């Protein structure tokens, strides 16, 4: 997934009201849109290097959008709206080895009246639902974690993926690690115990869990490497 134009480097001042960040660009201070409504735990230290995408649409109130933060010497992709685009690029280019050679990929497909999954994938042998979770949390060297806050919606998705198996589908959940240099992934059990419990239930029920790290630069973000998932 390539950015439409090169990103602009600045320094983070603060994030506020969830949707706004103040950033110093050279001698100017600008307010940029924050496309991540989560906690962004560990990423928001004042002075962190950030990368903004300039938007020339005159209808938009904010001319810049936050795309990348550098934290603990690693670039981190924080735009949650890009996660599905990155995964779609990976599916189309066979970068996810468990989900290769698909002849039909549909986005945002309803499974029932209450839940839709990010992708419905078809190949010769099966139909699979795929849910994507964007990962930006790193508290231990080279280990990415999810979630960074309590997520009832995330637990609901886990249980619904089990229902999909019962109806004859294969179920996958991919943790898309938008953090450089990660080698392992784990569930942040101390942050959301309920999510961890439902993860264990889903795994036993046959949900396939994957973790893939992204290659991140101010020009593009693409899937790079499969990570080991550790359960503890």
Written description of the protein model:
- It is a single chain.
- The protein has 232 residues and is α+β, with helices and mostly antiparallel strands.
- It has two domains: 8-72, OB fold (Dihydrolipoamide Acetyltransferase, E2P), CATH 2.40.50.580; 80-229, Trna Endonuclease, Chain: A, domain 1 (3-Layer(aba) Sandwich).
- It is built from three helices and 16 strands.
- The strands form three sheets. Strands 3-2-1-4-5-6 form a six-stranded antiparallel β-sheet, with no helix packed on it. Strands 7-8-9-12-14-15 form a six-stranded mixed β-sheet. The protein has a four-stranded mixed β-sheet with strand order 10-11-13-16.
- The radius of gyration is 18 Å and the shape is globular.
- 36% of the residues are buried.
- The model has no long low-confidence stretch (mean pLDDT 95).
Structure described in brief:
The chain has helices spanning about 85-90, 150-165, 195-205; strands at about 10-15, 20-25, 30-35, 50-55, 65-70, 75, 105-110, 115-120, 125-135, 135-140, 145, 170-175, 185, 210-215, 220-225, 230.
Using brief descriptors, characterize the structure shown.
232 residues, OB fold (Dihydrolipoamide Acetyltransferase, E2P), 3 helices, alpha+beta, globular
Strand order across the largest sheet: 3-2-1-4-5-6
SSE arrangement, N to C: EEEEEEHEEEEEHEEHEEE
Instruction: Look up the CATH topology of the largest domain.
Output: Trna Endonuclease, Chain: A, domain 1
Number of strands: 16
Rounded radius of gyration (Å): 18 Å
Shape: globular
């Amino acid at each position: 997934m390539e950015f439409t134009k090169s990103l602009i480097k600045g320094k983070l001042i603060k994030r506020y009201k969830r949707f706004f960040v103040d950033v110093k660009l050279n001698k100017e201070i600008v307010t940029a849109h924050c496309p991540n409504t989560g906690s962004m735990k560990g990423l928001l230290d004042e002075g962190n290097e950030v990368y903004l995408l300039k938007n020339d649409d005159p209808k938009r109130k904010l001319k810049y959008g936050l795309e990348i933060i550098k934290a603990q010497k690693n670039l981190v992709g924080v735009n949650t709206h890009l996660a599905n685009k990155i995964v779609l690029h990976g599916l189309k280019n066979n970068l996810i080895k468990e989900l290769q050679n698909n002849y039909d990929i549909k986005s945002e497909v309803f499974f029932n009246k209450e839940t839709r999954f990010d992708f419905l994938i078809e190949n010769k042998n099966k139909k699979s639902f795929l849910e994507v979770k964007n990962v930006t949390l790193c508290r231990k060297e080279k280990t990415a974690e999810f979630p960074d806050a309590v997520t009832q919606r995330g637990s609901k998705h886990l249980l619904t993926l089990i229902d999909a198996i019962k109806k004859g589908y294969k179920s996958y959940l991919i943790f898309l690690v938008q953090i450089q240099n990660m080698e392992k992934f784990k569930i942040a059990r101390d942050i959301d115990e309920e999510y961890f419990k439902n993860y264990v239930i889903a795994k036993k029920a046959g949900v396939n869990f994957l973790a893939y790290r992204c290659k991140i630069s101010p020009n593009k973000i693409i899937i790079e490497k499969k990570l080991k998932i550790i359960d503890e």
